[in-house]
Design a protein that fits this description.
The protein is mainly beta. It is 8% helix and 54% strand. The protein has two helices and 13 strands; from the N terminus they run αββββββαβββββββ. Strands 12-11-10-9-8-7-6-5-4-3-2-1-13 form a 13-stranded antiparallel sheet, with helices on both faces.
């Protein structure tokens, strides 16, 4: 119940002077402005254990996502405001492991989530380091590529995704990049590549206003 209450507090926290208000007992350390007309805030809370951290993402219409990950970058809990569903990690045949990715340059995973709204989902795939690094706004990132397939409780494929992201090994998290999503009747692409990294005390930290890519329609992306 504490987890649910904390997410509710994040959703209910008012924005003051165009600044995102973190829930009581939480401390932020980073804001990222991305190409996809989103701004994300990264923070840790008093009740979090063993390196857990959280992210709140906002778009032009306000708060769109709140999530919690482990120190291994596992998806522990995700609240999707646009669809109105929450997912929580319920088990894994092969856990996600940031440590394995950094040590072996590849990490496979096969885990399940439970949702009151959509039921059981299974996610199977991998992340792989490409060996490339890139500096964005003064921050050095490692490039990754991934493939993911999502299944329902009956084992039917729901959708799949592939793309390229970034890893920051000290922050122990993935940062979005180019992604392609495919369902049985549709396909769409996104570009969540970061543009600005903003730290406490800097202008724009905890801003509620996304800056880049707003009002633009995504063109087709080629993902090898």
């Amino acid at each position: 119940m504490k987890r649910i209450a904390l997410i509710a507090a994040c959703l209910a926290a008012p924005a003051t002077a165009q600044e995102f208000s973190l829930p009581v007992g939480c401390e932020g350390y980073l804001t990222i402005q991305s190409k996809s007309c989103t701004v994300s805030h990264y923070f840790r809370c008093d009740e979090d254990q063993n390196g857990e951290q959280r992210r709140a993402t906002m778009d032009e219409d306000g708060l769109s996502y709140v999530g919690r990950i482990s120190s291994e970058a596992e998806w522990l809990e995700s609240y999707h405001l646009r669809s109105g569903h929450t997912e929580r990690l319920s088990g894994a045949n092969d856990t996600m492991s940031m440590s394995e990715l950094l040590s072996n340059e590849i990490d496979s995973w096969d885990f399940q989530t439970e949702s009151r709204e959509i039921g059981t989902s299974q996610y199977v795939g991998y992340d792989r380091l490409t060996g490339e690094t890139v500096e964005i706004d003064g921050v050095l990132l490692m490039r990754t590529e991934y493939e993911l397939t999502a299944f329902d409780a009956a084992g039917n494929e729901m959708w799949k995704s592939q793309g390229r992201e970034f890893v920051h090994p000290e922050w122990r998290m993935f940062i979005g990049g180019l992604s392609s999503y495919i369902t049985s009747d549709d396909q769409f692409d996104s570009d969540d590549t970061p543009v600005e990294f903003i730290f406490p005390g800097e202008a724009g930290y905890l801003s509620v206003n996304p800056k880049f890519g707003c009002g633009l329609q995504m063109s087709s992306l080629e993902i090898d």
